[in-house]
Amino acid sequence: MSSPWNVALTHGRIGVRPIRRSDVPRWERLRAENQQWLTPWDATLPPGEAQQVTTYRQMVGALRRKAKRGEWMPFVSTWDGRMVGQVTASMISRGPAQSASVGYWVAADHAGRRITPTAVALVCDHLFGAAGLHRVDVAIRPENHASLAVVRRLGFTEIGLAPKYLHIDGAWADHRLFQLLSEDVRGRVIDRVDTPVER
User: Fold this and answer.
1) Phi first, then psi: what are they for 104, rounded to 5°?
2) Cα–Cα distance between 100 and 110 in angstroms, integer?
3) Phi, psi dihedral angles at 38 (to 5 degrees)
4) Largest alpha-carbon pair distance within the chain?
5) pLDDT: is 97 or 59 the higher one?
C-alpha cells in the first residue's frame, strides 16, 4: 500500500507534492531570495542546543525518513507546477490523538495569490481523508498577520495563547494556537485532483 504522503494534490494552478532531493537548487534560491521575508518566522535552536550545520539534501533526507515512518508529511507548494513554498504536516500522532501540526511558507513574490490557503486546505483535506486524522493544529506568532489570515480563511478555531511556545528567529516567542477538526470540514472538502507519486 502506498504511503498517504506519496501523492500530489492539485486545485487549479495550485498544488502540493512530496519534497524531493532534486528541489535543492530551487529551494536554496527561494530561501536566499526570501531571507528577509521568512527569517522573522523561522524556527531556531535555543542556546545550549547543538548548532549543527545541515545541508538542504540532509534536511530533505531526514524529512523523507520521517515521512516513511508516518511521522511527517513534508510537501512543497507549487504554482503551475513550479515550487514556490512549503507546507509540512509534522508531529503526526496516532492512537487516541490522531492529530498533526501544520506549518507553511510561500515566496514573497507569490504572496497574495491564495496559494498558501489553498495548499494548506489541500493538505488538511488529505490529512482528514487519506490519513484519517481528527485534528490539525497551527501555531502562529501574534504579529504574523499573513499567516493569521490563512487560518481565518480556512475556518480554524483559536484555542489559546502559548507563551514562549517556540524558539523563533533567536528568541522564545509567544504563539496563538488554532485547530481544525475533521467534523469542522465535513461537507466542505476542496475539489481536487490526487495523483500518486512514483517513489
Assistant:
1) -160, 155
2) 26
3) -100, -30
4) 47
5) 97
Residues 143 and 155 sit within 8 Å (Cβ to Cβ): no
Q: Is the predicted pLDDT of residue 59 greater than 50, yes or no?
A: yes
C-alpha cell at 70: 508516518
**Mean pLDDT score of the chain, rounded to an integer?**
88
The DSSP symbol for 130 reads T
- Distance between CA atoms of residues 49 and 52, nearest Å: 9
> How far is residue 152's CA from residue 135's CA, in Å, rounded to a whole number?
16
Higher pLDDT, 5 or 124: 124
Helices of type H across 104-144: 115-128
Q: Domain ranges for the chain, please list them.
A: 7-196
- Long-range residue pairs from 145-152, CB within 8 A, at least 24 positions apart, any chain: 146/111, 147/41, 147/104, 148/176, 149/117, 150/104, 150/116, 150/117, 150/120, 151/178, 151/180
**3-state secondary structure at position 145:** helix
For 7-196, which CATH superfamily applies? Gcn5-related N-acetyltransferase (GNAT) (3.40.630.30)
Determine whether 10 is exposed, middle or buried from the number of CB atoms within 10 Å of its CB (0-12, 13-18, 19+). Answer: middle
